[in-house]
Sequence to fold (367 residues):
Amino acid sequence: MSYLLKAVTYFCHLSCLFLQLCLYLGRRDFVDHVERVDSIDGVLKIDPSNLNGRQVWVQLACTFHYGRENLDVIGVSFRKDIWVKRIQMYPPPTNKPPNTTPMQDVLLKKAGDQGHPFTFNVPVHLPCSVSLQPAPEDVGKPCGVAYKIKAYIANEADNLNEKIGKKDTCRLTIRKIQYAPETLAAGPKADLNKHFITVDKPIHLEASIEKELYYHGDPIPVKVKVNNETSKVVKKIKITIYQITDVVLYSADKYYKCVLDEEFGDQVNGNSTFEKEYKVNPLLAKNKKKFGLALDGKLKDEDTNLASSTLLLPDMDMNKEMRGIMVSYKIKVTLMMGGGLLGSLTTSNITAELPLVLMSPKPAGLI
Fold:
């Protein structure tokens, strides 16, 4: 219970207070465990003295912003609500008191007699919070997926013609996030044999990583083995890591961003073998100027990471059931070959690909 009290004390300073509404949450991060999502439990404090017959709702919306606010023209908004759920808070639709969580019990003590608990159950098919790194000239809200809780006073729950003043609204931004699973599978391995037109024997490339998942900021050891049975020379070895962003909204689009590109001067002569482990580390700090890079959803201006890999249920069809932004990564290991007598007709680079899962570890004590 002491943890709850500490969390509540912190987030009450972040609550929105406008006259007769005060929105309380005990936390701003809600975890997607793949097979289920944490319920979003909070309390809304309502002073009914100045409602004048109007009603009070609380709304949770998952919204995709795909354009800058200053580009909204002729009433066309560059955002789409992927999922919206509303709950009538006042007058209560039923006299039956709702079931409350331990967090809500603590919040109700702070809100007093005017506190009303609410709970949102979030579907597993909704995307996690993701923001796209803005260009220097961009202003306003960043593109990406965001979750917002809004409490408001109105005559109707969703009347587009009804104007709701700022003094009758309060809101908080929250995040839906995923953490790395506790059970990790063995790392992937790629084997590739490359034959050349003028050579009977091949070059064999084997690339591997020891586990499938790495945490943000941790070096990733990539093992490279080469068996060069030709007379050709591998001039150097290059390792690149790509972030792949699937944007599923009106259509399915895929974007590739290179988040790491390193070359190593190791040479593999003809009729020889080579084996070495390279440690690479894709970091946001080295990609600050890349517009459109997917980042973990931000709250205000706090530090963040490259967007975590998106974990889905095994039988989920991303194109049919998901909307928003899904993120994945892959590693490319390339043998940079020296040119032959006929140039690229007889010699070309050799590339092997490995899937990579990049995430944050689950905080200690999180269930």
